[in-house]
Design goal:
Length: 354
């Protein structure tokens, strides 16, 4: 390329600049155009690298021609920058003039209560009206509190690796909230009315009604002359209060090492209205409240005089109760990041998660 061709190239580049600058819609777009024209690889900036190809006596005027064009283009770009800045300043002035300090501010988005948490709070309020106190226990428990103090023998399958999450320090992730029974008896003695909500962990096969992580509320009442009818009456009262109507229940025998006798209280499946579905395993019933009279060995381990006191205990399945209350077909939804499970329970209406 000789000097005349260079000048033609420069004129062509400069002729296009006003048009592309006017098309730039933002300061970021303007910066990108500046780089594309004046940068080392830009249409004009790249010409600087060609100076060495010209004869020695022409290199000076070639450099001057390129730099002069570069200055003119840079001036146009800076002018366009100032136009953007002036427009932004005008918008800020307009916004400030339009601001009305007497208007309410933008609403702050609020978090929603998880369905299981909502049911837990409701159950706690019901039991507090019945004279129960709310206690808590650790999720990582000792083998003694989780098994031995609850009359669960060494040979019981619940202690096996395929049923319980054993930790490397010899402790376990609690398989139920029942260890709080033992802690509460040692702490308060008798008579005693206590509930203990919390998270539990079992090495379960996951399906529509079982998961490895779930929530329970442990209940324990110890006093004189306590019997199974007291337990059943309390369970019916609780379920009716939570569901806000008369709930159909059934009571059947059940075996649990820490109670004698043991019972299982099932409620009519709210998903299928007792017809049968995957949630209730086609039975029409959902187990929500395994319970029974506290085994004398458990009372003795807690320092309770079994000659004077009896009591009942239950493990209310909070997660399953939430499923029944809000019409949630699959327990796995409650432990996932599915935001539909995190909307306010008042808005669930048994529809969104069915």
């Amino acid at each position: 390329m000789d000097f005349d061709e260079l000048q033609n190239t420069i004129r062509t580049i400069e002729a296009k600049v006003p048009g592309v600058l006017s098309d730039a819609g933002s300061i970021d777009a303007l910066r990108s155009l500046e780089s594309g024209i004046l940068g080392k690889k830009g249409s004009l900036g790249s010409l600087i690298a060609t100076i060495g190809r010209y004869p020695q006596d022409q290199r000076g005027k070639v450099g001057q021609a390129i730099n002069a064009a570069k200055g003119r283009i840079k001036g146009l770009i800076e002018k366009r920058f100032k136009e953007f800045q002036a427009a932004d300043a005008a918008e800020e002035v307009d916004a400030a003039a339009a601001f009305d300090p007497t208007l309410p501010g933008d609403p702050i988005p609020m978090g929603a209560v998880h369905p299981v948490t909502a049911v837990q709070w409701e159950v706690e309020r019901i039991f507090e009206r019945l004279g129960f106190t709310v206690e808590a226990g650790p999720a990582m428990e000792t083998e003694y509190n989780n098994f031995d103090a609850l009359n669960i023998p060494d040979t019981h399958p619940a202690r096996d690796m395929q049923d319980t999450f054993w930790l490397t320090n010899g402790m376990v992730l609690r398989t139920h909230t029942s260890p709080v029974q033992h802690r509460s008896m040692l702490k308060f003695g008798a008579p005693l009315r206590v509930i203990a909500p919390g998270q539990c962990f079992r090495y379960e096969t996951v399906d529509a009604s079982h998961d490895t992580t779930f929530y329970q509320i442990e209940g324990l009442l110890i006093d004189r002359d306590i019997s199974i009818p007291n337990l059943i009456a309390m369970a019916k009262l609780l379920l009716n209060e939570v569901m806000q109507r008369e709930v159909k229940v059934r009571v059947r025998p059940g075996y649990f090492p820490f109670v004698e006798p043991g019972i299982e209280i099932d409620m009519n499946c709210e998903i299928c209205d007792g017809v049968g579905c995957a949630t209730c395993k086609q039975s029409g019933w959902v187990e929500v409240l395994p319970a029974g009279m506290v085994h004398p060995s458990v009372l003795k381990a807690g320092g309770i005089d079994t000659e004077q006191y009896t009591g009942f205990a239950f493990g209310l399945g909070l997660t399953r109760l939430a499923m029944m209350k809000y019409g949630i077909r699959d327990i796995r939804v409650l432990n996932t990041g599915d935001l539909r499970a995190l909307v306010s329970p008042r808005r669930l209406g048994g529809v969104l998660l069915c």
